[in-house]
Design brief:
The protein is mainly β and 111 residues long. It has a single domain, classed as Rieske Iron-sulfur Protein. The protein has no helices and 10 strands. The protein has a 6-stranded antiparallel sheet, with no helix packed on it. It is globular, with a radius of gyration of 13 Å. The N and C termini lie close together (10 Å). It binds FE2/S2 (inorganic) cluster.
Length: 111
């Protein structure tokens, strides 16, 4: 399988555990979440209507939309709470030294 192409998008020091950061990669808005379980990268636009997920809250691995309160598992993108019904797309993310890197392929293909 072809190795996904990773792009440096942030410094690890920019994002404390429990925090999020919005980044742009190839015209897409992506939210980087740092939790106790590690680094996670997802589409930053809620699948319910239009809201930027990084303006919401991160509680453990639960990413909560600021507009109507839908929640998603930031590790998988799965919907945890209504009103959203469609999962958030996830991306492969890794931390190399102080560099946080994202690939636009889903994490399952990077493992
Ligand atoms: S826009 Fe996110 S829950 Fe409605």
């Amino acid at each position: 399988m072809q190795e996904p192409e990773f792009h440096r998008i942030a410094s690890a020091a920019q994002i404390a555990e429990g925090k999020m950061l919005e980044v742009e990669l190839e015209g897409r808005s992506i939210v980087i979440c740092r939790t106790r379980d590690g680094w996670h990268a997802l589409d930053n636009v809620c699948t319910h209507a239009y809201a930027k997920m990084h303006e919401g809250r991160l509680r453990g691995n639960r990413l909560i939309c600021p507009l109507h309160g839908a929640s998603f598992d930031c590790r998988t993108g799965a919907v945890l709470g209504a009103p959203a019904i469609t999962p958030l797309k996830t991306y492969a993310v890794r931390c190399v030294g102080d560099d946080v890197e994202v690939a636009l392929q889903p994490p399952s293909s990077a493992k």
